[in-house]
Design brief:
binds adenosine-5'-diphosphate-glucose, alpha/beta, nine-stranded mixed β-sheet, about 475 residues, Rossmann fold, 16 helices, 2 domains, globular
Length: about 475
C-alpha cells in the first residue's frame, strides 16, 4: 500500500535483520520486533537495516515480508567480536541489569562499538532509497550512538529511539567510561522511548548529572545545539489477539492433552526464559528446592517445568549459568524423586515451537516469571493471554523487578532475591481459590488486550511524527 501524504515511510534499525535462512530459502524470522513493526512497515512502505548475521547472501526482499526492503550491514570478525560479544553482551548488558554480573570495560570493545554504529549509519546514508524523507526508528542498546550519527541528515525526517532493556540509575550508569558519549548518541533522536517511568527517569537523571551542557525540564532534554528531545514511557506488548487465537488451535489442544496425561495428578509450575543470568533461574530453582524440602507431601503432587532457550553460550558467565542450572536440576531430582514417580523438575534446554509453548502456558497452574531484572518480559504477557483464551485459571508469580510488574498488577508480586520468600509465595499461590485466580487472570489478560504491540508501535510513531 502506498503511504498517504502525511504518513512518512519507516526505516527500522536493529542489530539483526528480521530474516532467517531455512532449508527452502530465506523467510521472516519469528520474533516480537518483526511482529510489532511489520504492519507499519508494510502500510507506510519501508526498510530494515540490520547486521547480516555473517552471510553476504541476504536478499533485498523476502516473500513473506512483502515490500519491506532489507539493508544488510556487514561486520568483519574483529569488529563483531568487540562490538557484539564484548561491548554489548559483556559491558552494556550486565551494566543495564544492575550489575547482576560485573560488566567488563575494555577500550578495544568500545572502539569496535563506535565502528559498528558507524557502519549502520553508513548503510543508511549510502543507499539512495533511504534518503527520501522517512521516520528512522533505532532499536536497543546495540545502537545507542546511531541516532546522533544519523542526525546530520535531519531534514530527512524525525528520529526515534527505543531501549528494550532497563536504563540503570545514574549512580551505576556513570561508572561507564563512555557514559557521556552514549547519552549524546541517544540524544541525536527526537523521541526516546522506555518501557517504564523508572527507566525514563533514570535516563533523565543521567542526562542531568552527567552532561554539563544539557538542560532537563520535565521529560524533555534541551541539548547544547538547541534541540529538545522528548523522553517517553511506551511499554511494549504482544500481538494479543493472535496469541489468544493460536492458543486454542487444534495443534495446541492435541499437545495440551498429551501434557495433561503426562502430568496427571500433579500441579505444574512453569518457567520459560532465555538462559540468561538476569532471568533469576538459579534463585527460582533454589526456591523450588526449599519448597520441596519444607513440604514432603508436595514432592508427589507438584512438578516444575523449566524451558530454557540456549543463549550467548560463547560468554563464560552464560556457560557457568548453564552448568549451575543443570547441577541444581540434577540435585533437586536426586534428592526428591520418589521411586516409581516422575522427577519433580523437567528441564528442557532448547527453543520450543509455538504450539508447544502455548500448550505449556495453558497447562501451567503457576507461571514463575521471576527475573532479577528485566526490561519488560513478554513471557508474562503471553502466559496470561494464553491462559485466559483457554479458560484457564493459572496464577502469575511475577518479579517486582520486571517492567511487566508496572502493568500486570493482579499478579502475585515477589522479590526473587528473597529465596525463602519466593518459596512461600509458590506455596501460597498453589492454594489460591479458583474464583480469585480467574478474576486476577481476566483483569491481566484484559489489560494486555487493551494495549497490544500495535498500540505500542502506533504510539511511538505518532509521538515522533508529531514532532516534525
Ligand atoms: P528477552 O530478554 O529475550 O527480550 P522476553 O521479553 O521475555 O525476553 O522475550 C522472550 C521471547 O522469547 C518471548 O516471546 C518468548 O515466547 C520466547 N521464548 C522464551 N523461551 C522460549 C523457548 N524455550 N522456546 C521458544 N520461545 C521462547 C528483551 C528484553 C525484555 C523485553 C523484550 C522486548 O530483555 O525485557 O521484554 O526485549 O522489548
Amino acid at each position: 500500500m502506498a503511504p498517504t501524504s502525511k504518513e512518512l515511510p519507516l526505516v527500522a534499525f536493529a542489530n539483526r535483520l528480521p530474516v532467517v535462512k531455512a532449508r527452502d530459502g530465506w523467510r521472516a524470522a519469528d520474533g516480537g520486533l518483526v511482529t510489532a513493526l511489520r504492519p507499519a512497515l508494510e502500510k507506510r512502505g519501508g526498510a530494515w537495516v540490520g547486521w547480516d548475521g555473517g552471510t553476504s547472501e541476504v536478499p533485498r526482499r523476502v516473500e513473506d515480508l512483502g515490500a519491506i526492503r532489507l539493508h544488510p550491514v556487514q561486520l568483519d570478525r574483529k569488529t563483531l567480536d568487540g562490538y557484539y560479544h564484548g561491548f554489548c553482551n559483556r559491558t552494556l548488558w550486565p551494566l543495564f541489569h544492575d550489575l547482576i554480573e560485573q560488566p567488563a570495560f575494555n577500550r578495544q570493545w568500545w572502539d569496535a562499538y563506535v565502528e559498528a554504529n558507524r557502519r549502520f549509519a553508513h548503510a543508511a546514508t549510502t543507499r539512495s532509497k533511504l534518503l527520501q524523507e522517512t521516520i528512522r526508528w533505532v532499536h536497543d542498546f546495540h545502537l545507542m550512538l546511531l541516532p546522533s550519527m544519523l542526525r546530520p541528515a535531519k531534514e530527512k525526517g524525525p528520529i526515534a529511539y527505543f531501549l528494550h532493556t532497563p536504563f540503570p540509575a545514574p549512580e551505576l550508569f556513570s561508572r561507564l567510561p563512555w557514559s557521556k558519549e552514549l547519552l549524546n548518541g541517544i540524544l541525536g533522536s527526537d523521541l526516546v522511548g522506555f518501557h517504564t517511568d523508572l527507566y525514563r527517569d533514570n535516563f533523565l537523571r543521567s542526562c542531568e548529572t552527567i552532561l554539563e551542557d544539557a538542560k532537563v525540564e520535565g521529560t524533555r532534554v534541551h541539548t547544547s545545539d538547541g534541540r529538545s528531545v522528548l523522553a517517553a514511557t511506551h511499554p511494549i506488548s504482544i500481538d494479543a489477539q493472535e496469541f489468544a487465537s493460536a492458543s486454542t488451535q487444534p495443534d495446541v489442544e492435541r499437545e495440551l492433552k498429551r501434557l495433561r496425561t503426562q502430568f496427571e495428578g500433579r500441579k505444574v509450575l512453569l518457567g520459560v526464559d532465555r538462559l540468561d543470568y538476569t532471568k533469576g533461574i538459579r534463585h527460582r530453582l533454589k526456591a523450588v528446592e526449599l519448597m520441596f524440602e519444607r513440604n514432603p507431601s508436595l514432592r508427589r503432587k507438584v512438578s516444575l517445568v523449566q524451558i530454557a532457550v540456549p543463549s550467548r553460550d560463547d560468554v563464560k558467565e552464560y556457560r557457568d549459568l548453564r552448568s549451575d542450572v543443570e547441577g541444581e536440576v540434577g540435585r533437586i531430582n536426586g534428592r526428591f524423586t520418589e521411586p516409581g514417580h516422575p522427577v519433580p523438575v523437567h528441564y528442557l534446554y532448547r527453543s520450543v515451537p509455538l504450539h508447544r509453548l502455548l500448550a505449556y502456558y495453558r497447562l501451567a497452574d503457576v507461571a514463575l516469571v521471576t527475573p532479577l531484572k528485566d526490561g519488560m518480559n513478554l513471557v508474562a504477557k503471553e502466559f496470561v493471554v494464553a491462559q485466559a483464551a483457554g479458560s484457564g485459571s493459572g496464577i502469575l508469580l511475577l518479579s517486582e523487578f520486571t517492567g511487566a510488574a508496572q502493568e500486570l498488577k493482579q499478579a502475585i508480586m515477589c522479590n526473587p532475591f528473597d529465596v525463602e520468600g519466593l518459596a512461600s509465595h509458590i506455596e501460597d499461590a498453589l492454594e489460591i481459590p479458583e474464583q480469585q485466580r480467574r478474576d486476577r487472570l481476566s483483569a491481566m489478560a484484559g489489560s494486555v488486550h487493551n494495549h497490544d504491540v500495535f498500540d505500542w508501535t502506533n504510539e511511538m510513531i505518532s509521538d515522533v511524527e508529531g514532532m516534525t
